[in-house]
Input
Amino acid sequence: RIPDSTIRRLPAYLRVLESQKEERTTSVALGERTGYSSEQVRKDLAYFGAFGTRGVGYDVSQLGQQIRHILGLDRSVTAVLVGVGHLGTALLRYTQEGVRDVQFAAALDNNPQVIGGAIGSIVVEDIKHLESVVRERKIRLAVLTVPAAAAESVALRLAEAGVGAILNFAPVPILTDQDRVLVQNLDLTLEMQAMAYFVTEHDDL
Amino acid sequence: RIPDSTIRRLPAYLRVLESQKEERTTSVALGERTGYSSEQVRKDLAYFGAFGTRGVGYDVSQLGQQIRHILGLDRSVTAVLVGVGHLGTALLRYTQEGVRDVQFAAALDNNPQVIGGAIGSIVVEDIKHLESVVRERKIRLAVLTVPAAAAESVALRLAEAGVGAILNFAPVPILTDQDRVLVQNLDLTLEMQAMAYFVTEHDDL
Ligand SMILES: NC(=O)c1ccc[n+]([C@@H]2O[C@H](COP(=O)([O-])OP(=O)(O)OC[C@H]3O[C@@H](n4cnc5c(N)ncnc54)[C@H](O)[C@@H]3O)[C@@H](O)[C@H]2O)c1
Ligand SMILES: NC(=O)c1ccc[n+]([C@@H]2O[C@H](COP(=O)([O-])OP(=O)(O)OC[C@H]3O[C@@H](n4cnc5c(N)ncnc54)[C@H](O)[C@@H]3O)[C@@H](O)[C@H]2O)c1
Output
């Protein structure tokens, strides 16, 4: 079995491989462009039998296909987005611009002024249809971009309707006392905090 | 010196510590709530001398303060956001909602209909003032949420004005042939891809 922490790094390797023009790459090059050490890259790739050839490295297109297969991207993943406000709209538009491997099959909201509007090819539907949308379209993944106050109640409905994972942007923990649904909390300010370190002066630690 | 990969994990530990009610925690608990292994947590914390007490763990408030100091969060970091569209607006609002450690000191756009508008306490300014805004307010960090076509030219102006790091959301690489300014590319669909793995069926790998 491949460790979860390795799986979480694979999309970053895939991004680099897909934006690369050369036919071959090395663990050092992949490391530099993703921020991981070259040992970490070698270790991760070895889990699924990609060892590369000493002195020559890895074949870019073959490695990309291997990672796509592992992530299940060769079988397209459908997701539902709930909360079509500023962040939700930006995400819906972004996943329809160019080749993004995850497509939204539905977008839900509770505001009558938002319901019925189109974002690219997706028409926003009323959240009252959440259960039937998730079941009929076999949706396994949800992205939650509702205000903090609505997050837990919407997450409970998604879990009961059968999603397997939720990417949560609301700044509150959700579904904390169960472990059937995978919850990933994302905080864009965390990225900013990490960068703050690199631009502020430091006394000797 | 603390390795960059450790620094990148510290904000995630800080989030967990700050949402914790208990007075003590352990590397296992921190690992579970952030997704890293407990060995990784112990190794990271040991870099700055936080060893915890065997069997008792770490003091939550003390560890939080240590991490805040290392990340330079006890000296507030000011940032500029460029491109006040859907994503930019969501980020500006979010960083003003509750205690977020990074504050935006300015928001810039080139659309006359956006300039002069207020998002919380921030009034959007014209991007033609980029240089003077960065210099006069001593801004070291920039967040780029402009369309792909504008990303490189805006990034060059930010670099020349003196920012030290850019968090880039546009789906194109920027400032690739220099290494004075730190660039971090962020792709929210990467998180979705990693989660897709956990919800799709896998043949034996
Ligand atoms: N994690 C991060 O880094 C980050 C960054 C920006 C925003 N956020 C968070 O993301 C969320 C969305 O932010 P935004 O700026 O897009 O907010 P917004 O107010 O623009 O959008 C919220 C949307 O959710 C809808 N909504 C509200 N209650 C609902 C419910 N019960 N069911 C269905 N839809 C509902 C609203 O109609 C609206 O369209 C907020 O929780 C915010 O704190 C997080
Ligand atoms: N990385 C990700 O996961 C992710 C997710 C969503 C969106 N995006 C990207 O983020 C960017 C913003 O997305 P959005 O949905 O908010 O787009 P948007 O069109 O709503 O916003 C873009 C804003 O930039 C401004 N702008 C355009 N050219 C400019 C220039 N030269 N100088 C200053 N301002 C300028 C526009 O006036 C507008 O306000 C896009 O590049 C999009 O692809 C990335």
User: Anything to note?
Assistant: Residues A 82-88, 108-111, 114, 127, 145-148, 150, 154, 169-171, 186-189; B 90-91, 93-94, 97 surround nicotinamide-adenine-dinucleotide (ligand 1) (CB under 6 Å). The beta strands of chain A are 24-25, 58-59, 77-82, 102-109, 118-119, 122-123, 125-126, 141-144, 165-168, 182-185. The mean pLDDT of chain A is 88.
